[in-house]
Amino acid sequence: MDRSAHSLRVLVASADRHDLVEVWDALIGVVQEPAPPSTLMGVTVLGHPGQLVELEAVAAVAVEVTGQPPLA
What we know:
The protein is an alpha+beta fold. It is built from 1 helix and 3 strands.
């Protein structure tokens, strides 16, 4: 991932440490090294019965400004 053009931050929350590790391993399998700034957080409960993890990812991509008005 070209850090000058892209930015990514990931938050993973789960009540089970094993689930955190599984999600992290899956994430690293699709995101190029170096790993993005990330937080693995253990929580007491999640919002829905049976929910294993909550994943929040924020990404930004630089775009070239061409002088054209934005698309509506």
